[in-house]
C-alpha cells in the first residue's frame, strides 16, 4: 500500500501523467462545447492552443479557469482570424468542388488544387498557435503561419497530416468516425493539437530567434489559473 501511495503521490510520474490526461480531457471538452456555435470556433481554438501550452505543468493548473481566461483574451483576434480562414476555405473549397463536378482529369489542374489545399492545411495547422504566441494582426498571423510553415516544411508535413485526421475520417470513413465519436469528444481533438504543438514548438523556437514576431514560450503559469485543479 505504501508503494502504491508513493506511485500516486504529488510529483510522481503517475500523478503527472494523470494530471496531463485530465488537463487534455478538460481542454477537449471545453473546446468542443465552445465551438458548437461555429462562429466561436476560432476563439475556442485559440483558447485550447493557449491552454495546451501548459500541459507539462498540469498538476499546478486550474484548467477551466485558464481556458476561459484565454478565451476572453484572444476572442477578438481569433474570431477575425477564423472569419478570414473560413472565407479562404470557402473559395478554395468552391474551386475544388467545381473542378470535381466538371469531371476534369487534367493532372496539372489536380496538382494545383492539391498544392493550394496543402498550403491551406499549413495555415490551419499553425494559425491559432501562432496567434497565441504573437501580438500580430490576424492578417499577419496568416502570412507568418504560411511562411513559417513552409520554412519548416519537414516539421509541417506531420503537423498537417495530424490536423487532417478528423476531417479525413469524417469524409471518407464516416462510420468509423461515428464509432469513435466518444473518443473524439473526450480526448481526440485536444490530443492531436497537443502532439502537433510539440512539433510546432521546436519549429517556432528557431523562428523566434530569427524574428521578433513570435513571442517566447510562456515560463510562468498565469496567477489566476495556478494552484489546484
Structure commentary:
- By secondary structure, this protein is mainly α.
- The protein has nine helices and no strands.
- It has helices at 2-7, 13-35, 41-52, 63-102, 107-132, 138-151, 153-172, 174-179, 181-210.
- Helix 3 crosses helix 5 and helix 5 crosses helix 7.
- The chain is globular.
- The mean pLDDT is 85.
Number-wise, the strands total 0
What Rg is obtained from the alpha carbons, in whole angstroms? 19 Å
H/E element order = HHHHHHHHH
Assembly type of the shown chains? single chain
Number of helical stretches of at least 4 residues: 9
Sum this structure up briefly.
With 229 residues, the chain is mainly α.
Set down the secondary structure blueprint.
Elements: H1 2-7, H2 13-35, H3 41-52, H4 63-102, H5 107-132, H6 138-151, H7 153-172, H8 174-179, H9 181-210
Helix pairs in contact: 2-3, 2-9, 3-4, 3-5, 4-5, 4-6, 5-6, 5-7, 7-9
Short key terms for the protein model shown above:
9 helices; 229 residues; globular
